[in-house]
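Please produce the structure of this protein holding 2-(butylsulfanyl)adenosine.
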Amino acid sequence: MKNKRILEKYKKKIELIKKFNKQYYDDNKPTISDSEYDELKKEILSLEAKNKFLDADDSPSKAVGYKPSKNFKKDFHRVPMLSLANAFTEDDLLNFEKKILNFLSKDKNYKIIYSAEPKIDGISASLTYKNGNFERGLSRGDGREGEDITVNLKTIKDIPKKISDKDFPKDIDIRGEVFIQNSDFENLKEKFANPRNAASGSLRQKNPEDTKKIPLNFIAYTFGFNRDLKQKKQSDYIKKLDDWGFKTNPLNKTISGIKNLIQNYNEVEQQRANLDFDIDGIVYKINDFDLQKRLGNVANAPRWAIAHKFPSNKGISKILDIDIQIGRTGALTPVAKIKPINIGGVLVSNATLHNEDEINRKDIRIGDSVTVERAGDVIPHILSVDLKKRSNSSSKFIFPNKCPSCGSKTVKEFNNITKKIDAVRRCSSEGYYCDKITIEKLKHFVSKEAFNIDGLGKKIIEGFWKLKLIKFPQDIFKLDYKKIEKLEGWGSLSVENLKYSINQKKNISLDRFIFALGIRHIGLENAKLLSKYFKSFLNFKNLSKTKNYKELLNIDGIGETQINSIKSFFSIEINFKVLDELEKILVIKNVIATQKNGLLKNKSFLVTGKLNGISRAEVKSLIEENSGITVSTVSNKLKYLIIGEKPTKRKVESARELKIKIINQDEFLKMLNKTS
Ligand code: IVH
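Below is the modeled complex.
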């Protein structure tokens, strides 16, 4: 009871400080003095210190200053700011290089030169220079649209305001990392959890004078949009950055060979503790810009770069219990509840056990003493069990054969493609029968890459679910706001904000919509492929009537696994009801055929046989770059069959029957005004 009172008091104070923050940062009209504000903040921190159970996400002890999103104008990046794929092991690196060599159709002895750049853990920013003048600076934001933080960036001494060098491009976005040195962070420890938060908080101060007080640094490492950039290699570009007056990382190097990358990685890791800035790994980029261009991007990351993360740290703990979590697709994931231990500055109390097979393989049991590893940003996992410490009374962990949430049978499916039984056990219920699955589906529905509804995070979805405010996705658009306003932690302002962000998202693109449905095996990329193919929600929905699932094989990238999954989605009654209801509420935008007038417009291609010096993947990206389409079967939708060495006979024969043009590699390249 006492705790409940404390919690209420704590929440009230947090609401209050949020109100004052808004007055100060957003409205520029503070109603209390600075010392009164500090007093309130101190009270919250002292409540937290005395009561460990108090840890609200929006507490001033955690929040990165105030996020004044309304204060900063948003603006689009001229070229998106991508993220990087991660590598943790030597195998990951070997795989990365192998994929690149395959894509470029080079043999395994081809020497790739990398630019190896220690990865600073700060906040990335993109600086636009026109005619040598620093004109505009954006934060990364979601990669496409960032916040205009020009005034704050101008306070950073490492950022040149004017560059008169003759060979500095007339128009370029210089990109790099804003960060704070560890020694400077010492004085800010009270205010921020770590140097990264300090940098981010200070960059977002409303008043640039406040930003100026915090010693921020900037290191440049790449570019976005550019005109007349003369360099052909990343290492030359970095040298030029130095000449132009930017700071670059003194530990950058060019290296080739995975063994040498690893040697450098180990050396840098040794130096890590002595550096005055935080690094969390090393970025490897293909040094040659022409090769980078050929490789291009996948979804949100370039194919030509990877971040080799430093390992985690390890720690020894004890398994207190094994919980079974149920995911959106019904997968049962065992999670070890461990005695909390501090690993690399983070208190870890959960570790994933992956799946039933993993538990059996390592014979992990409740009560075991285990080594836990925390690698990068991924969920900690159990490395090994110390059998010597196992008690005689311990018994094997039995994986539940009934879903702990809904009681349905749990099953391990047979995978028709790999011809193996899945390692994952799943709840066999369908649609929205299982509560846990439903909650996860709802979280996915509102998540960043789906409906991206601000202010409707996982905890809130769980809360609304418990209160029976939502059960199906459509309920999100029919919330009882009057009821929510009366709930603890909500006020009229926060309800208004929620209502606003939900209504705003009623307009949605078809790819996001398909992704939001959470159909198994239909991730973001596949949802994009499907939306491009169907063009409208109606066509997509009609699939359940035409049942012409085989036609999806025409979509390059969609295979049997995905098709079976879509089929099973459409075989469940409740999914139709959800689609119908959503259709009534939403405006699902049709895909308008891109107006790009590339050389291959309205032409479709399929490759059979081995090509010379160019991989299939590269051909595909060449076709798409030039507004053409790639298909994966010979049908009357195909215009050109490109044949290489040893083509599949059947494909060539069917193409002849259908009178499809058959061309070779040279003829194809000629269509693009290229030669091989
Ligand atoms: S290149 C497309 N180079 O890492 C390539 N990024 O996960 C992406 N970062 O948002 C940027 N040091 O904040 C690049 N030398 C470096 C980097 C670096 C740190 C950060 C950057 C980016 C994130 C990608």
